[in-house]
Design a protein that fits this description.
alpha+beta; Immunoglobulin-like; four-stranded antiparallel beta sheet; 3 helices; 9 strands
C-alpha cells in the first residue's frame, strides 16, 4: 500500500489532526501575542499611569524697608500633576533649619551636604492641612502658594527648607522637595555687631 493510499484511507483522521494542530498553533499565537502586549504595557505604559507630582520651591530675598537688620524671603511652592491619574494632596509638612556657613578647605570643589545643615537650628516643623496646595489635582493641574519668612540679616548663615507632600493614595514621584540659600543673599550686610540668628515666620 503506497503513501497516497494510506492518506486516502485515513483522510478523515489526517484532517482531524491537521485541524487540531492548526487550532493549537492559533492558541499559541494568541497567547504569545497576549504576553507580548502585557510585556509592552508593563514596560512602557504602566509607569505612565502611576501618580506623578512635580513639586518645586523657588525663593527670592528682598530688603525690608527702613530696616537693614532684617530681610525677607518669599518661597513659591508649586505642585503640578504630570501623570495620567488624579492625585489628592491632603497635607504638607514644612521643616526648616538654620546653620552656619560650611567652611571651605583647600582648592578642590566640595559637595554641598544638606545633612550638615539639618543638624543645625530647626526653626520650623509644621504640618499644613488647609490652603491652596491642599487640593484635588486632576492630570495637568498646577497650583502655587507663597510663604514669606523674615530673617535677621546674617549672611554667614544658611537656611534650608524641606517640604513633604502627603497624598490620599500612593504617589511614586514628587513627594518632597528642598530649597536652600544663604540668608539675605546679595543684600546690604549690617555691621557684625548687629548680627544675630533669630528668625520668625509669617504667612
Amino acid at each position: 500500500m503506497g503513501f497516497l493510499s494510506v492518506l486516502r484511507t485515513h483522510q478523515d483522521a489526517v484532517q482531524s489532526w491537521t485541524d487540531t494542530i492548526s487550532k493549537i498553533a492559533q492558541v499559541l499565537a494568541l497567547a504569545l501575542a497576549g504576553l507580548w502586549t502585557y510585556k509592552t504595557f508593563y514596560e512602557s505604559e504602566r509607569p505612565a499611569l502611576e501618580r506623578r507630582l512635580n513639586t518645586s520651591i523657588a525663593g527670592a530675598w528682598a530688603a525690608v524697608p527702613n530696616d537693614k537688620d532684617i530681610c525677607e524671603i518669599t518661597l513659591n511652592v508649586s505642585v503640578e500633576n504630570t501623570g495620567k491619574q488624579a492625585a489628592d494632596v491632603t497635607a504638607i509638612s514644612i521643616t526648616g533649619w538654620l546653620s552656619n556657613r560650611m567652611p571651605f578647605k583647600g582648592q578642590t570643589p566640595q559637595l554641598f551636604n544638606t545633612d550638615i545643615i539639618e543638624r543645625g537650628q530647626m526653626f520650623i516643623d509644621q504640618t499644613v492641612t488647609s490652603g491652596i496646595l491642599i487640593a484635588h489635582f486632576p492630570p495637568a493641574a498646577q497650583r502655587t502658594d507663597s510663604f514669606v519668612w523674615y530673617f535677621k540679616n546674617d549672611q554667614d548663615k544658611v537656611a534650608l527648607w524641606k517640604i513633604d507632600f502627603q497624598t490620599s493614595k500612593p504617589t511614586e514621584f514628587g513627594k518632597n522637595t528642598y530649597f536652600w540659600d544663604y540668608v539675605c543673599r546679595n543684600l546690604p550686610n549690617p555691621a557684625p555687631s548687629e548680627r544675630n540668628s533669630k528668625t520668625k515666620s509669617s504667612r
